Amino acid sequence: MSEDLSSKYILQTAGFDARFPNTNQTRHCFQNYTDYFKCIAAKGEDFAPCKQFKRAYNSLCPNEWIAKWDDQRENGNFPASLEP
Amino acid sequence: MLQNFSIFKTIFNDAPQPWQLGFQDSAAPGFTGIVELHNTIFFYLVVISVGVFWVLGSIIYYYNSKKSPIVHKYLNHGTLIELIWTITPALILIAIAFPSFRLLYLLDEVISPTITIKVVGHQWYWSYEYSDYVNESGESIEFDSYMLPESDLELGQFRLLDVDNKVIVPVDTHIRLIVTGADVIHSWAVPSLGIKIDAVPGRLNQTSILAERAGTFYGQCSEICGVWHGFMPIAVEAVPVQDYLAWIDSN
């Protein structure tokens, strides 16, 4: 059973990013969020490399922030350009 | 490792004791470093204090109008002694500063983490999010951690420290903590892991933890955040990786 679990869950998370070497990771989260939606706007939702950004922002951003930004994108008042 | 072969079993001190003066037992390399630096500096601090008070006491005892009535006429200036008592403290400060900065930057380093845990401070509880394994419908593990009220405590649980949902972490794994606040500034602190980091609304603070042994480590909110600031404790349970995976699986 233990073998199943280690293959079922890969222990992996967003790695070190040289753009964000500091304690303050706010921008690291936001950058990955905008990058994901820029990526899918350019390449389509099924483009696999875009998933990397999604995993990163899910790991880094508080769920409350993600929900708020998702709402803002729907309402068209997201405070950054998501044009590729 | 020694524990397994020794007939004397150690019980680690991972929660505060009544009238405790020293530190809790370390469970992370960072905290071991902090205690080490504290002890080293304290040794020199005691030597300096004894020296200073010895000199001060001698001067008070010997140099007074009865014992040496005209000493002020002859003892008014000495270049050598002034150089010594200026340069020696400067060297001591430098000797303390170097290991201190070394430790500070070591603690700052977030070494390629395996897991990210998000910690959010609320008035007045902590909530935790594990979002590395988001399932198909986009749900991640997310729970609130409230203090157990005194009436619900079972034998062996700590008053004002035990919580309903502990943070489960695997041992010997580099874990990234992303700490933020939802309303006011809180501070997430666990002495045994050597962590104290502010939870600031609108900002994500990053730190790294590495639990070296299994156990439950306790801490408290360390930034005054309102009336129940003292009643939002932190409990971290370090378990073997297999047990951690089983816990992930059950959530």
TrEMBL record, chain A:
Keywords of this entry: Disulfide bond, Mitochondrion
GO BP terms, alphabetized: mitochondrial electron transport, cytochrome c to oxygen
Predominant subcellular localization, coarse grouping: mitochondrion
TM annotation in the entry: none
UniProt-annotated location(s): Mitochondrion
Superkingdom of the source species: Eukaryota
Keyword Nucleus: no
GO cellular component, one term: mitochondrion
Cysteine pairings via disulfide bonds: C29-C61, C39-C50
Pathways per UniProt: Energy metabolism; oxidative phosphorylation
InterPro entries: COX6B-like, CX6/COA6-like_sf, Cyt_c_oxidase_su6B
Entry annotated with the keyword Disulfide bond: yes
Family the entry assigns: Belongs to the cytochrome c oxidase subunit 6B family.
Free-text function comment from the UniProt entry: Component of the cytochrome c oxidase, the last enzyme in the mitochondrial electron transport chain which drives oxidative phosphorylation.
The protein's name: Cytochrome c oxidase subunit
Organism: Phanerochaete sordida
From TrEMBL, chain B:
Residues that span the membrane, as ranges: 41-63, 83-107
Gene Ontology biological-process annotations: mitochondrial electron transport, cytochrome c to oxygen
Enzymatic reactions: 4 Fe(II)-[cytochrome c] + O2 + 8 H(+)(in) = 4 Fe(III)-[cytochrome c] + 2 H2O + 4 H(+)(out)
One GO CC annotation: mitochondrial inner membrane
Record's cofactor remark: Binds a copper A center.
Membrane topology reported for the UniProt record: Multi-pass membrane protein
Chain ranges of the Cytochrome oxidase subunit II copper A binding domain: 112-250
Gene3D superfamilies named among the record's database cross-references: 1.10.287.90, Cupredoxins - blue copper proteins
Cofactor: Cu cation
Pfam family, one: COX2
Subcellular location: Mitochondrion inner membrane
All residue ranges annotated as the Cytochrome oxidase subunit II transmembrane region profile domain in the record: 15-111
GO molecular function: copper ion binding; cytochrome-c oxidase activity; oxidoreductase activity
Entry keyword set: Copper, Electron transport, Membrane, Metal-binding, Mitochondrion, Mitochondrion inner membrane, Respiratory chain, Translocase, Transmembrane, Transmembrane helix, Transport
PROSITE patterns: COX2 (PS00078), COX2_CUA (PS50857), COX2_TM (PS50999)
NCBIfam families named in the record: CoxB
Function comment: Component of the cytochrome c oxidase, the last enzyme in the mitochondrial electron transport chain which drives oxidative phosphorylation. The respiratory chain contains 3 multisubunit complexes succinate dehydrogenase (complex II, CII), ubiquinol-cytochrome c oxidoreductase (cytochrome b-c1 complex, complex III, CIII) and cytochrome c oxidase (complex IV, CIV), that cooperate to transfer electrons derived from NADH and succinate to molecular oxygen, creating an electrochemical gradient over the inner membrane that drives transmembrane transport and the ATP synthase.
Family (UniProt): Belongs to the cytochrome c oxidase subunit 2 family.
PANTHER family named in the record: CYTOCHROME C OXIDASE SUBUNIT 2, CYTOCHROME C OXIDASE, SUBUNIT II
Record-given protein name: Cytochrome c oxidase subunit 2
Gene, per the UniProt record: cox2
